[in-house]
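Thread: "does anyone have the structure for this chain?"

Original post by V.I.:
We have the sequence but no experimental structure in hand. Need at least a predicted one for the grant figures.
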Amino acid sequence: MTALTGLSVVDLSESVGGQYCARLLADFGAEVVLVEPPDGSVLRRLPPFSDADDRGSLLFFHLNTGKRSVSLDPGSAVGRRALDGLLRGADVAILPPGSEPRDVLGLNPRCVAAVVSPFGADGPLAAWKGPEIVLQALSGMMHNNGVYGREPLHGCGRRASFAAGLAAYVGITAALFSREHTGLGQTVTVDEAETAAAMCFPYVLQHIYNGTVKGRGDPNIPAGQVRCRDGWVCIWIYNHRWSAVCRALGLEQIERDERFGAPIPRRAHWAELFAIIQDKVADLCAEELVATLQRDEVIAAKAYRPTELRGSAHLTDRGYWEMAEGRLILGPPWRLGRTPREVRSGAPRPGADNGRVPVTAVPRPATGAAAAGAGPLAGLRVLELTTAWAGPMAGRVLGFLGAEPIHVESPTRVNSWRLNKEVPNPVNFPDGVPGDRPYDRAFHFNSQNVNKLSCILDLKTGEGRDIVRRLAAVSDVVICNFRPGTLARLGLDYDNLRRIRSDIIVAELPAFGAEGPMAHYAALGPTMEMSTGMSSMIGYPGGQPETTGPSYLDPIGGFNAAAAILTALLHRQRTGEGQYIEVPQVEAAMQLIGPELLAAIESGRDPVPNGNRSPYAAPHDAFPARGDDQWVAIAAGTEAEWQALCGAMGQAGLAADPRFATLAARQQNIEALTAILADWTRTQDKHAAAARLQAAGVPAAPVQTPEDLARSEYLAHRGFFTVLEHPDAGRHPHPGLPIHLDATPGSQRRAAPRFGADNHRVLRDILGLTPAEIAAVEASGAMATEPRPGA
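Reply from O.Q.:
Generated one for you, tokens below.
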């Protein structure tokens, strides 16, 4: 049995986000019918394309495996009747932008009707065009990428749209979970632009806290890249791992060098240090270098090229790559122990199932009533053994949807995003003041842990483990994003926890999976991005691979984990069975560039980084605007958009210039075109220029900073920010999540917790311990309300 067996889904979407959402539903058991117009879905005509004569769009193939296809014209009477019949029998309908989902509920009150669109049906950007570069520019993410003084980089593929599809899947499965109690469907809306903003590192809260803006010229992450004989390797040099780096690289002679021995001079001589490392490793194999560093617990990763991933020893050992009707497909984004993914077919031919899909003339009866304002997961409890971003993001999503997350930290192993081990930097705190409890005032932790309770337990003690076991007995879900084996070493793995509660769901988020040659490797968002093949596609011509912001894959991992948990909850709701979930974050994120991976593997040709430029549009880049490091993104993908761009610039004659008269000509003369556009944009305000171009029908956007995000009329219209009062950090707007359910909406109800603030509440109100029992736990040293020295 698959988790979603028996669900009927009608996919009317004509977008990447909508069709990816529907494909996930198909992967885990739903019967999905793709409804296409008579000339086929528009995505069948979008790149990248297969080299084989008759295989068409690899984007369409990746998005539509496991679905059935029906062709009809909803504008005709016959087509409308057929479509209405499909919708009357549907549990889920995924609609194109511009649709009114309430109309579907009028036909079928039990249906969950979802719309994924670039900017929503209303608001200040509703009429804007939103290709990937526009979405990334608006999100704040693009402002983090690339070298100061050069154009910021937008990334690769259509990742913002895929992420929106993942968010829609979370919203739909949450609505289906709620329907079991109410008997009613509801609408789910997700904007790609809002989703992209939610995936951005939370520098916007830093700005809200103290007015500072993280710039591209500011000191960045403690990492660098070196080129081995067969590829690039990224090496992280944390202060506490400096000796290990020197030992692993055989560079003991520089460990106490006055240029490198201490953190401050080491950062000042970073380029010299990496020149020395480069000389040492130039002739080494990249994978061998990574293995050597990882043995000494130094975080490092190879920037894999897409073609290399097909033969990856790690992925092969894990049985990652699969086949559907003789064609290569990516493995599952997450692995469910009892209800694994099952891909039943490749992508369908247009109209392949005409006349073979049953039509319902009378809608199923609906019973019950929605609990107004209550989150769809109200009543569920989540036990979080997590740190940093991916794990806490998973719990944050579930908490936003109404669950009660309990965030467990050790008094000696504090969540790294509390910045407890770092010298307090004023930019991380409200008004630039660390205060007496800086670990309660850091914007990083406070951005990702809203709605949660804080319970501090030392799991190295018997008392601490006993409390966690008691909490597991009254929790529905356990989330852990520590290294594989951590739960097992504590006696808290799934096999042990299910003896405590038979229907418990345990989700672990190992970067590379629980098994395989790389399973034990430590990782961070940027090194996971390099391992997916993404980084090798991002960069300036001839330069090193680049990553997307400080940690782009962490929130992607969190959303994937939330999606997997909701899938398991639906199965448990129907059968009473819990299960173990493995969310290998690298493999999950590979889905977002699935078409590009398949194209490279099939052709044997890896994409060559070329800044923001695209073979399918010209111009397609970021151009300097008025002000320091201010940019505007512009993308003309059609001849009409190119001509409109010339007109909006006041240079209509440029469209007739033979150098730029066709896409091929513009590509050939791209440097000259870039110079002409930059001469115009550098005199313009980026916001005004983008608005002017969009009004003319040209995709464009300001490359937004955290300050721009905080002032965004679009995000304000979406209700993205919620004002919350924190007892130490004060009252501030907090960034939100992009999942909108109309009957059982999510919410941000309370600010992130102070360290150990809910210890007594958890023990007294949730576990029912007496005052004497609580005092005994505290006396044992298993609990704390402040980090212990050295933590």
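V.I.: this helps a lot. The mean pLDDT is 95.
O.Q.: and The two ends are 46 Å apart (CA to CA).
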